[in-house]
Amino acid sequence: MKYALVTGASGGIGQEIARQLAKDGYGLYLHYYKNERSVQSLVEQLSTDIYAIQADLSHPSGVDTLVSSLFHPIDVLVHNSGMSTYGLVTDMTDEQVERMVQLHVTSPFLLTKRLLPSMIQRRCGQIVVISSIWGLTGASCEVLYSMVKGAQNTFVKALAKEVAPSGIRVNAIAPGAIDTPMLQGFTEEELEALANEIPLGRIGKPKDVAKAVSFLISDDASYITGQILSVNGGWYC
Predict the structure, then answer these.
(1) Does residue 236 lie in a domain region?
(2) Residue 22 near residue 28, CB atoms below 8 Å
(3) Using an 8 Å Cβ cutoff, are 42 and 49 in contact?
(4) Which family does it belong to (predicted)?
């Protein structure tokens, strides 16, 4: 059995990615930090070999905690952990900046570094980063979030070139507005206005992202690497 590690598996997108990968036949390592109930529910629902791992990837010790709990070689690594911050650059505390960079940039880099040798030795592996539309176009009052997501996109493009000779593919998905708890702060009127801005006329679903992950790690995408796939309904093409 092949195994996939999904970070941030307790969130709306992470849960759906886990469900899709279970359907695709993967054994799962599901990482979470706070929402244990959500991951335990997945463990009970999904009929595959599955392990839940708690670790704080916004802290320097998080990667060691996660890696020490892995018992199988990882064939698919999905970097999905993330959080957003809203406010002016001058509103951000130094601690917020450090945690955001650790969570979105440093920990994914170090986790990839730890798992790559096994992939290189076996000459196979898939890495997918769940980035953001704001990492492509930038967002006022989300400068910090845009910065770290932009860094993820460049990480993907550079790493893809480095590991392609070893048979490893690296891609990213940049979701637009997706119906997850991140949109819970919006009123119905605001959500309707947002949907009207999107050419396809609707807010995306977590399944839209999960299906894209499934495609990118499949043999059908065997000639695709180093790409940032926008899943955003035509918003900010």
Answers:
(1) no
(2) yes
(3) no
(4) Belongs to the short-chain dehydrogenases/reductases (SDR) family.
Tally of domains in the chain: 1
Q: Is residue 237 part of a domain?
A: no
Predicted TM-score (pTM) of the model is: 0.96
Determine which one of 33, 145, 223, 236 is catalytic: 145
The pLDDT assigned to 227 comes to 98
pLDDT(183) > 90: no
In the annotation, is 145 catalytic? Answer: yes
Residue 235 domain flag: no
Residue 124 has pLDDT above 80, yes or no: yes
When pLDDT is averaged across residues 121-149 and rounded to a whole number, the result is 95
Identify the domain containing residue 181 by its residue range: 3-230
Q: Rounded to the nearest 10 degrees, how much is the dihedral formed by the CA atoms of 34, 35, 36, 40?
A: -160
Quick one: tokens of 162? 């480095």
Within a domain: residue 55?
A: yes
Whichever domain contains 104, its CATH number is 3.40.50.720
